[in-house]
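Quick log. Single chain, no ligands specified.
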Amino acid sequence: MTNPAEGSRRNQGRRGWLHARADATLADVSPPRPPPPGPARGPRLLVLGGAGQLGWDLARLCGPETTSLRRKDLDIRDAGAVRAMVAAWADHQPPGSSLVIVNAAAWTDVDAAEAEEEAAGAVNVTGAANLAGATEAAGATLIHVSTDYVFAGDEVRPYDVADRPGPVCAYGRTKLAGEEAVRSLTPRHYVVRTSWVYGAAGHNFVKTIARLERERETLRVVDDQRGSPTWSRDLAAGLVALASSGVPYGLYHLAGAGDTTWWGLARAVFEELGADPARVLPCTTSELSLKAPRPAYSVLSDRAWHNVGLSPLPHWRDALAGAFAVDGEALRP
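-> predicted structure:
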């Protein structure tokens, strides 16, 4: 999603298809440093969107268990290339391995998608369908990462997986269509909706606010959109647990616990930086003249996740403190 703060990066035209579900675009952004190998465990993962926040953290957590691909490695819009790559990967795994493909690749620029819905759909719908078909052919499991923006934002309590979607923007429409394509093409799927993701790799809202803290005496951030910030490392850990769990296939929500507004998140970033949060001033979405509408409320309920015995993510404020403790250097670009 485009950063909802005055002074954030403006749309620079078509960026092509992007890596990783996140709050900002990740056009060919390299990770801060190669992730250290982790202990060998769990299923064998093939991650699409490896240059993005979630993909990078999956590699950091799983190490040699993960094969991570970036856009330059595989264009998910190319059905033949996707099928060949997935088949080759599956053929090279140890016999009897549990094979899981994680689709963390997406077009995530909300405003650009509004102007280029067909191009966004080529990634978010066609790309997802290509991966689902290849997953089914390989006998693997697909974890498809989706978004809170599939909802209209007119609720006043957290959205459950049983709630009817109603996206208000092109980005949300393409992500919802991608979910439907996955469900129709392979029964061995987990669709996991998340929200407001930030992390060590790429560009995101938290990094933007950290940069603007140095550059601006004050800044205005929208206070009429409410959601749940999610640290990509926590999200990655949740998906790894899901991949190993054997819980029923289907639709789940997974995001940081609790909720806030973009203004509230920006103030919390200032606090982590030791800066005065009073320098962050609230404004309305209409004041920023954004091209695409956003849901005013997109908090996700993790009831379905909890009901199958999986652990919820930490509260968003605790996670933000943890992110600065672990990835503080990367979060201060």
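Confidence is low (pLDDT under 50) at residues 6-40.
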